[in-house]
């Protein structure tokens, strides 16, 4: 495939790689990091035996395992890393979600600029799907705050092809993958740009979606660290920023996680404080009562009962 003139050579090669893998009929559902580690610890998983092992399970592989041309595309895309015994590893993964394919970081996601994708992404996509199904008014402008690999905004752009969708992040690695994923999905209306929350954008939005990091991470990795007392800080900041930028009839869909301590939900308490007395109609629900249970083993979450995945939606009731 000829290089895409809209991309630097390495990005054009990465897009071509993803397209070539997709053409094989590849599908992969990304699991939690804990499950990934358990499955990869099996003796038979030591070396990749197919594309799902290379681009899904992040296993080391010999060069001749790949179909013709793919190894060269990986080299040109700068996503190859040497492994032991003359083997290689992919620095990216490919996961399927709602019929689309998304590039994101390989396992384990230990780098400060790693781009995460997993079960949280699936739940986030489901929350967006429900919001889109319930909406009657058209979506002309949308934003995905902290877009990561871009799945939220790209799914909005696929559902509303005429919409202008801003994929916003401060992580350059995330923006690279979001830009390529938008091209892979055939959504030219989804445009990646560097922005701290909504700071780089102007005007109002019919839909704002966000799946921010919500854990306290000692390494302060961009995709995990939410700040605040127990990881809720960034979610509160996004709520505050979004409420001021919703168009009449506009909706915020905020999927996040919250540590419950003695039955108390700190994010819900903060959200009530921000929304009380405003014009916004809002709803708050637990989508999954127990995620990332391994975080409870010590550190900041030693007193937490559980970490729940929640969805907050807020809508400006004024007529569009």
TrEMBL record:
Pfam families: MTS
Top-level taxon: Bacteria
Domain spans labelled Methyltransferase small: 138-254
Biological-process GO terms, alphabetical: methylation
Keyword NADP: no
Database matches in SUPFAM superfamilies: S-adenosyl-L-methionine-dependent methyltransferases
InterPro entries (alphabetical): DNA_methylase_N6_adenine_CS, N5-glutamine_MTase, SAM-dependent_MTases_sf, Small_mtfrase_dom
Gene Ontology MF, one: methyltransferase activity
Keywords of this entry: Methyltransferase, S-adenosyl-L-methionine, Transferase
Chain ranges passing through the membrane: none
Protein name: SAM-dependent methyltransferase
Organism name: Paracraurococcus ruber
């Amino acid at each position: 495939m000829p290089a895409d003139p809209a991309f630097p050579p390495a990005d054009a090669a990465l897009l071509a790689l993803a397209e070539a893998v997709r053409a094989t009929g590849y599908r992969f559902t990304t699991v939690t990091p804990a499950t990934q580690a358990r499955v990869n610890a099996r003796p038979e998983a030591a070396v990749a035996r197919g594309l799902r092992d290379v681009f899904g399970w992040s296993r080391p592989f010999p060069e001749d395992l790949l179909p013709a041309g793919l190894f060269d595309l990986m080299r040109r895309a700068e996503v190859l890393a040497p492994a032991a015994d003359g083997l290689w590893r992919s620095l990216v993964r490919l996961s399927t979600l709602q019929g689309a394919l998304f590039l994101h970081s390989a396992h384990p996601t230990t780098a400060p600029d790693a781009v995460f994708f997993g079960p949280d992404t699936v739940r986030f996509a489901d929350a967006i799907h429900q919001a889109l199904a319930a909406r009657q008014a058209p979506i002309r402008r949308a934003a995905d705050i902290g877009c990561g690999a871009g799945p939220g905004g790209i799914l909005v752009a696929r559902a509303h092809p005429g919409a202008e969708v801003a994929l916003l992040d401060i992580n350059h690695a995330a923006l690279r993958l979001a830009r390529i994923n938008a091209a892979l999905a055939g959504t030219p209306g989804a445009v990646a740009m560097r922005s701290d929350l909504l700071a780089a954008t102007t005007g109002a939005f019919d839909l704002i979606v966000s799946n921010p990091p919500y854990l306290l991470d000692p390494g302060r990795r961009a995709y995990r660290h939410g700040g605040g007392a127990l990881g809720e800080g960034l979610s509160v900041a996004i709520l505050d920023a979004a409420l001021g930028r919703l168009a009449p009839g506009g909706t915020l869909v905020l999927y996040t996680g919250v540590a419950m301590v003695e039955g108390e939900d700190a994010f819900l308490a903060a959200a009530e404080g921000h929304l009380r007395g405003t014009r916004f109609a809002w709803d708050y629900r637990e989508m999954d009562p127990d995620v990332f249970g391994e975080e409870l083993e010590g550190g900041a979450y030693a007193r937490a009962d559980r970490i729940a995945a929640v969805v907050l939606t807020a809508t400006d009731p004024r007529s569009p």
